[in-house]
User: Fold Protoheme IX farnesyltransferase from Pseudooceanicola lipolyticus.
Amino acid sequence: MTDASINTQAKGFEREAGFGDYFALLKPRVMSLVVFTALVGLLAAPAPVHPMIGFCAILFIAVGGGASGALNMWWDADIDARMRRTKKRPIPAGRVTGGEALAIGLTLSGFSVVMLALATNILAGFLLAFTIFFYVVIYTIWLKRSTPQNIVIGGLAGALPPLIGWVAVTGEMAVEPWLMVALIFMWTPPHFWALALFMNSDYEDAGVPMLTVTHGRRTTRTHILVYTILLAVLAVGAGFTAIGGPLYLVVSVALNALFLVGALRIWRRDERDSLADGCAVEKRFFRLSLAYLFLHFGAILAEALLKPFGLGGWA
Assistant:
């Protein structure tokens, strides 16, 4: 990926880049998910953490997540320019150069990893470095353009923040944060495949081998249903572990019932149904998937915060 090839696609600079354009490189919406799940992992850990250390840990994890976003936009600028959903991003819109995005991404990556290791522990710093590497090299550069399993395998990068938050406090691995990782990992495919069902032309135009492009929309609908069933088993089952509790279990059962109904509706539809209502069912499922993850992690956080008062968890 060169600056020349990226800038050729932009129809001239629309305006001079501002702070908002550089901040957009960090994918703030994705960063909000990284911050929240990492915070839950940090606060659910069975050890006290000094508020300043906790703040620094979340800050540097967020910066690392933003760095990944900038490097992703640098590499994907050519396909971003061909997709309606992404063509207004800073690089394809011509407001930021690829070289600037690369420099920002690399600088913030190194800064976040070193500072997290210094503020907490080396293992947390290593996990953040691995997460950035996995997202940029394994997912963005390799998997995204080569296999319809890009979202399935690449989803590991987005699933690791709660583990990093936990390790930042404890300095060691445990089963509980890996359950949180598994929850995000299994949620990612149905979430993105629902998006692909109503944005399929974008992926076709960009040459991205999303499942809808390589195997068709019928197969994608079946995959969404299967992954949603597996996700429901995992999510509800987690309610009986150390990160769960009565509150989490109630929230999880309700959410997974809604999610399963949504996935079943998607599976039953054909393309005539989608064309008739503008993919309304798929879009509702996608919006529900956003609430699904935030509410599950919100319930995990609530259980952790209630434990000191003898109210959270099963103890």
About this structure: Residues 17-173 form a domain with the Tetracycline Repressor; domain 2 fold (CATH 1.10.357.140). The radius of gyration is 20 Å.
